[in-house]
Amino acid sequence: MRREIVITAVLVPLAVVVGAVGWSGQAALLPAATFFPLLWARSPTRIAAAGVTRSAIRGGPVLCCGSLGRPLLLGRGGIVFRCCPFGAMDGAARMGKARALSHCPGSHCFSATRDHRLGASIDGGRHSVSGLTAGLIGLVTRIGPAIAITLSGLWLWSAASGTNQILLEGWRGVDLEMGASLGRDQSLQRQRDLVTAVRHIAGTREIVVVLPESTLGFWTPTLERFWRTELQGTHATVVAGAAVIDAVGYDNVMVAIDAHGGRVLYHERMPVPVSMWRPWERWSGETGGARASFFANPVVEVAGRKIAPLICYEQLVLWPLLQSMLYRPDAIVLIGNGWWTTGGTIVAIQRASAKAWSALFGVPLVISFNT
């Protein structure tokens, strides 16, 4: 018993370090997350495994607070909703071969799949994801230390190579600093200010301007006509976040607008659980939550380009991006609204992660965030 306590007392602080380094928001440090399975596999008890898991997932649970400003209590509830079952499953899975088979292909595997530039193309990226998944599974076996040394070497090589954002010609991601007012201020003056900014960026060029999640607020025919009219005489196409509402809920979407009109381009596949997506509402009779389109619209076309669209939280979940990569997109377009993360590293983590995904698959990246 004493030995187990000592081992746990060592592993938990190490897990905190792994989480702090891996989720620091620096792309070169993302591979630190790959050491989590090694610590987890060395946990002497289920309780210790759950403690290691909770200590290592620094930053991620806070995302449950959501970008739509849900009450803090709901955000805290979301943390419990996500972390407690996650830690419990980790602890329960620590039995024999279940270590390798039930844990590593899960959520922490995705943390590592974006961490190394092991391929310069989409095909290379697929092979890299498969190879790293196998490596993570190996971390929880007896040869885990040897694999850890190998992954450390790949980390150093990756850091030396750098992970710079691959840009897309003719596209411009615009970061805004409008705080909580973005999407909530529905005034005509706010829309005019946004149009003015777009026209200034576009000039006389043919360009696609990408604006953050929730920029346009509620998408309506009136708003579509306003933007269509204001973009007359330009060669700009605007891709921006908005919400389409009805009597029972809403869709978090991207829209595309130019001088000829506007349309809903993309429906979010995976909204933030609890604070946005609440599937139990259909049985409880409540309304107001976001719909999840799950495996719909993995790629969309705009301005002659096939893009992989991601809205905020989707970029931190494995399957939306991998699903999109199956269709060989010309670019990844990521929009987010991180005003509620002031003082934290969530937006930096998302940016670093997106750059790593882009480098892994060799696909250009366009990012637009509001803070």
Could you characterize what this model shows?
The chain has helices at 2-22, 36-41, 46-56, 72-93, 98-103, 107-113, 122-139, 144-161, 188-202, 221-230, 281-284, 318-325, 346-361, and strands spanning 171-173, 206-210, 235-245, 250-258, 261-267, 300-302, 305-311, 331-337, 365-370. The chain has 371 residues and is of the alpha/beta class. It has two domains: 2-161, no CATH class; 171-370, 4-Layer Sandwich (Nitrilase/N-carbamoyl-D-aminoacid amidohydrolase), CATH 3.60.110.10. It has a five-stranded mixed sheet with strand order 1-2-3-4-5. A four-stranded mixed sheet has the order 6-7-8-9, covered by helices on one side. Strand 2, helix 10 (221-230) and strand 3 form a beta-alpha-beta unit. Helix 1 (2-22) packs parallel to helix 3 (46-56) and helix 7 packs antiparallel against helix 8. It is globular, with a radius of gyration of 22 Å. It starts with a helix and ends with a strand.
Q: Biggest sheet: strands side by side, in what order?
A: 1-2-3-4-5
Beta-strand share of residues: 15-25%
Number of domains: 2
Runs with pLDDT <50, length 5+? 59-120
Number of distinct beta strands: 9
Mean pLDDT: 80
CATH architecture title of the largest domain: 4-Layer Sandwich
Structural class: alpha/beta
Taken in chain order, the helices and strands follow as HHHHHHHHEHEHEEEHEEHEHE
Figure out the total of helices. Answer: 13
Helical fraction equals 40-55%
**Could you name the CATH homologous superfamily of the largest domain?**
Carbon-nitrogen hydrolase
What is the CATH fold-level name of the largest domain?
Nitrilase/N-carbamoyl-D-aminoacid amidohydrolase
Terminal CA distance:
48 Å
Question: How is the main sheet built?
Answer: 5 strands, mixed
